[in-house]
Amino acid sequence: MHSQVNAEFVARMEDVLDLYGEAPDQKRPVICFDESPTQLIGEVRQPIPAAPGQLERTDFEYRRNGTVNLFIFLDAHRPWRKVKVADRRTAEDFAPCMRELADVHFPEAERIRVVLDNLSTHSPGALHATLPPAEARRVLRRLEFHYTPKHASWLNMVEIEIGVLRGQCLDRAASTTASGSSPRSQPGNTNATKAALASTGCSQPKKPEPKWPVPIPKQHSKSHNHCAKELV
Predict the structure, then answer these.
(1) What sections of the chain are H helices per DSSP?
(2) Second label for 203, Cα 20 to 30 Å away, from 1, 36, 40, 48?
(3) What is the pLDDT of residue 10?
(4) Pairing of strands 81-86, 112-116
(5) What is the reported pLDDT for 232?
(6) What is d(CA 141, CA 136) in angstroms, rounded to the nearest whole number?
(7) How much is the average pLDDT of 118-140?
(8) Dihedral (CA of 99, 93, 12, 135) sign
């Protein structure tokens, strides 16, 4: 969808780009935040592993193992990122993420500048709707929200991280939970879901299997002299 480049668009764009251009400041970090709904897909039949001259073969049929939501944090100025798995993407899930960001990941920061999109749950009101008033206010005093222009969430650097995650691990099958049921059918069972995602290689991306070329059989062509001899 094309966004309308107006004064508001330019103002928000410049605000976000100015944050990216600042020097790193541990007291005032710039954290990009976004969400990524993810469907967990499992294999019905065991794939046939790759072999010399043959790529890995998988069956077209798959099993739906439920859906989860990934809350992704990215420090714009240093190599730090965090992925938090949840069953939903409501205000009740967003608020704990912001409290964890302030109290667990950056407890020494004076002000945390958070870059995020315009999703309805990405607001100070989500914290007031979920946390006690004094607790919501305490957390919000440490946070400073900076919104990307509408329909321009690509200005959020965490979008690149989501693309990397999908390319390295989220595009492959994920195992079911230990009980065999879908993580979606077990509200709050994020540990099992994390194990399912880890089994895809998210925690340690696997090196791609070498693609062995299929040997081409040698064909011994006959020379023109040989052909002439046969004709004679």
Answers:
(1) 7-21, 91-100, 124-130, 133-140, 158-165, 190-198, 224-231
(2) 48
(3) 95
(4) unpaired
(5) 44
(6) 9
(7) 95
(8) negative
In angstroms, how far is CA 57 from the centroid of its own chain?
26
> Nearest Cα to 34, choosing from 164, 187, 183?
164
Please say if the pLDDT value at position 15 is more than 80: yes
Q: How far apart are CA 197 and CA 153, in angstroms?
A: 25
E-strand spans in 137-216? 143-147
* Cβ neighbours of residue 41 closer than 8 Å, sequence gap 6 or more: 62, 63, 64, 65, 173, 174
Mean pLDDT of all residues in 34-50 = 73
Residue 57 DSSP code: B
126 and 94 in contact (C-beta within 8 Å)?
yes
Mean pLDDT of 137-143: 97
- Determine the length of the chain: 232
Distance between CA atoms of residues 172 and 168, nearest Å? 9
Round to whole Å and give the CA distance between 102 and 214: 54
Q: What is the pLDDT of residue 170?
A: 61
Q: Which two tokens stand for residue 102?
A: 């302030």
Is residue 71's pLDDT more than 60? yes
Average pLDDT over residues 171-188: 42
Residue 89's contacts (CB-CB under 8 Å, 6 or more residues apart) are 35, 37, 69, 71, 121
Q: How far apart are CA 65 and CA 181, in angstroms?
A: 7
